[in-house]
């Protein structure tokens, strides 16, 4: 009954008057009024009108253990009473942050033994930039200062995050403030670039763009390659199986650092602790955020692999970087309880063995829909491409006139029918909470099909 306490119109009016929303046209939002979300439980949220919505996006890809976890609230409450805050700058530490660092080392690939804490994924990637530059500096290779990223990547919204990211919208608005020496290569998006090739052939071609770029700018100039194991905000771009092994080979060949931005893929999203485990890659740095606390409290950071940590710790002296909230004890307490839940409820094993394969099957059935050119999943992320008219092959379909059309059609129907799904270009995507059951997958895919039918 949380909605009964809320005066929707009054909140919307205040919202329109004072609140500049992230990634939003505040003026047009003010005209329609923001939907006021008042409660969450499991995989559902409720708005102030009492309408229930199935949250197929886990908030913003973060609500891994689902809403309404009272044990996380309890852990946070207890920690706030004991020690709500202390910094980690001046030779002090705190118990939850230390325990969390040890826990993260335990669940991450074997060559990770150090953690740098930050407040978000963006700050994690700012930290990466510093770590990368410092590493090459200490190695006596200052000239290695070019970072290669990918078009359509999302690495955050700070200047470093947005510069590393490859979304044209964010770069266009940032003329003059993007960081130099960050270059981008194409994304491994089979729908877009794979015409006339098998996915496996295309995966090698797309990985080859990394080597081409390295040779173009000069191998001795390249510091690192950064990428999301599965590109998330860019539209759940699932790379062909050949892509990551070839990327790893190229990074190894030229000695460049590999950074896996696991802000979405980390903490079970692909049915493994990290996307790096899923694809069998060995990054030097891993960015994390979101799923580390399931979004209950902000936290992010970087897992620092031995190659970088050894140099920085042995030879670096002071590392002049950090945030007020690095290693925040309350966030760490939330993360520890969140990870305990993931382990106790075997959520990752479930996604890997049971619900992930079930989602693949059910979501895959949408491939028969006349508006869908491809429906594909990887663990608990999924994307489908909408087309105006199906063709004989994936690459011979008739696209909608504009991606806006896709967004409008689908978003309208989805929200109206109680389903949260996101539109990115021609693609509709989901990333449900890891606690979603097979029955709820039926409900979710049923809702998606219903909404697609309604748009025909
Ligand atoms: N990296 C990736 C892969 C992300 O998906 C995001 C957020 O969506 C970020 C970084 C930025 O994280 P934050 O919004 O916590 O700064």
Automatic annotation (TrEMBL):
Its cofactor is pyridoxal 5'-phosphate. It comes from the Bacteria. Keywords: Aminotransferase, Pyridoxal phosphate, Transferase. InterPro entries: Aminotrans_3, Aminotrans_3_PPA_site, PyrdxlP-dep_Trfase, PyrdxlP-dep_Trfase_major, PyrdxlP-dep_Trfase_small. GO terms for molecular function: pyridoxal phosphate binding; transaminase activity. One of its GO terms (cellular component) is cytosol. CDD domains: OAT_like (cd00610). NCBIfam families: PRK07480.1. Belongs to the class-III pyridoxal-phosphate-dependent aminotransferase family. PANTHER family: AMINOTRANSFERASE, AMINOTRANSFERASE CLASS-III. This is Aspartate aminotransferase family protein. The lineage of its organism: Bacteria, Pseudomonadati, Pseudomonadota, Betaproteobacteria, Burkholderiales.
